[in-house]
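Re: that chain you flagged

S.,

Sorry for the slow reply, it's been a week of failed gels. I finally had a moment to sit down with the sequence you sent. For the record, here it is as I used it:
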Amino acid sequence: MSDPGLEQRPVIIIFGAAVRPDGGPSLTLRRRVQAAVRFGEALQDPLYMPTGGQGRHGPPESVVMARLLQDLGVPADSIRQEPTAVDTLSSARACAALLRGHRGPVWAASSGYHLPRCVMLLRLMGLPARAAPPPEAAMEWRDRWWWRAREGAALPVDLALGLWARFRR
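Prediction finished late last night. Pasting the structure tokens below so you have them in one place:
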């Protein structure tokens, strides 16, 4: 980060989710942002970093999240978008590049099933990440198990890809 005063500022990286066909946030995206803001209220002057690029619908995920953050009262100068990432690994890589030299705390904000992979990848990319409290699950138990199984399969794949990316640089 170029501003020395920002090097110690707490950062909350909000991992994206789908944008609806009308350009609005999906329920998952909205809940992740709301949980990040609730958590950020307990921190001193956090910097919110919504991450996520162009998906199938509407504007990039980071743009939709930045708009939500401002609607929830977060000032524009407390938001730094990462609008290029297309998946969790590229989000972690891009955020690590944007936060090069940062020495303050870093928090990952996402859904509970997704947080272990987010934290793992941020740490692999050199950030001292921890998990922010996730939003409460808003889905049926069958859906929760499907997402957990999906994450269980994605975790070792992203671990291998993250290690490859880390040692390649």
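What I noticed first: The chain has a mean pLDDT of 87.

Talk soon,
D.
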